[in-house]
Amino acid sequence: MPKKFAVNSKAAAGRERKAAQDAEKKAKQQAALEQKEEERWSQGAKKAGKKESEAEKRAELEALKEQEEKELSKMKRAPAAKQTRLEEDLGKHVGEAVPVFSADNLDDALEALEIVDDKATRPGGSGAPDRHVERRLKAAYAAYEERELPLLKQENPGLRLSQLKQLLWKQWQKSPENPLNQASLAYNATRDQEAALLQTRRDEIEARLKE
């Protein structure tokens, strides 16, 4: 009959503690390994996401570049625009001498502008002859008197007001500001008559102001 040995309680307790410590150590090591693995996977996912984002940006840039190239290609294939009337007129007059006008005062400058403003010198334009001169005679003389009478007083301090007005009236008769001295038409004049008078006036101004 085999001999029974007594169990050493201290040794058993020591073995249990060691086993528990080993198990705890292994658990910590396993947790550390799992943590590292998670970090590695996380970094890999970030890198993959970054690469995917960069690829998307490159694709967008390529799409924009292709769109721009298509637009440029359409522009190159577009037919040339027709010449405007102004361009045609300019082309007809290439090489022609350009007249030069000289204006010494405001009235001359305004008349020079009428020459170069084609719309103003057309029948019915702003520079067309007046068909109702009498309508603006009074206003024109009032403006002339308001400006010129003080100057006459300074030049002729010994004259009375009535004498100054007589002198002013004589000047007014010859003044280019007097509507009666300006080109005018009968109210029932035809367009051809108006055009002829305009051309005559234009020729007179050009002859007077051309250098």
Automatic annotation (TrEMBL):
Residues 101-182 form the Coiled-coil domain. One of its GO terms (biological process) is transcription by RNA polymerase II. Residues 9-73 form the LSO1/LSO2 domain. InterPro entries: Ccdc124/Oxs1, Ccdc124/Oxs1_C, LSO1/2. One of its GO terms (cellular component) is nucleus. GO terms for molecular function: transcription coactivator activity. Residues 13-27, 50-74 have a biased composition (Basic and acidic residues). Residues 1-90 are annotated as: Disordered. Keywords: Coiled coil. Belongs to the CCDC124 family. This is Coiled-coil domain-containing protein 124. It comes from Syncephalis pseudoplumigaleata.
